[in-house]
Amino acid sequence: MRAVLVANPKGGAGKTTLATNLSGYFASQGKKTTLCDLDRQQSSLRWMAFRDPALPSITGYYGGNQISLSLPREADWVVVDAPAGLQGYKLSDYLKAVDKVLIPLVPSVFDMAATEDFLNAIRGEVRGVRAKVGIVAMRVDPRTKAAGMLEEFLTHFDIPIVAYVRNTQNYVNVAASGATVFDPPRARHRRDMEQWQSLVQWVEKK
Ligand SMILES: Nc1ncnc2c1ncn2[C@@H]1O[C@H](COP(=O)(O)OP(=O)(O)OP(=O)(O)O)[C@@H](O)[C@H]1O
Ligand SMILES: [Mg+2]
């Protein structure tokens, strides 16, 4: 079993969007995939309830009431969707339980300011931070000024950007039916699946 934590203290950064789509990717590859929802709002589990049983299967559970995070050993991949505001001893516990950490980050001054302490805390706790922690630049085109601003901000933390995810209604539309950009209609999601290539390669790298 390998596990990925998706976390950012800022609300609405794109954690659930990343966690659900990453789960969809693993499931589409025939992997036994479990989504662990740590958020009391349980957005990931609500999403899963809409999922068509004909699509590659993803199992899920609420893990937010555990004192210490314990993940199901029998899965190939566990994707952990963290709540906004995650910090302190819970963050430390979750960091220990997973192989990789993905941090979705929208390149706005508000989002970057709200994430700064979190990135510093992670850097202080994770050894070999570059191999274990990756940023996903959310809702941004890599050729824009906003992307440049994000890259400049991240030079202070030595944490790599592992993918750029564009702003598109595709994510909103698939979410409404418990699907992901790795589910049909794939022709409509071609550009998005391409953008995920670097992300999944980085996550799968041992
Ligand atoms: N790349 C994208 N393009 C368009 N919309 C997006 C994209 N990523 C996320 N969104 C939308 O932004 C909103 C917030 O995303 P999401 O729920 O994934 O964030 P979150 O970090 O899980 O939020 P919370 O902190 O409340 O759990 C959602 O409505 C989602 O559909
Ligand atoms: Mg969420």
Automatic annotation (TrEMBL):
Top-level taxonomic group: Bacteria
SUPFAM superfamilies, alphabetized: P-loop containing nucleoside triphosphate hydrolases
CobQ/CobB/MinD/ParA nucleotide binding domain segment(s): 5-180
The protein's name: ParA family protein
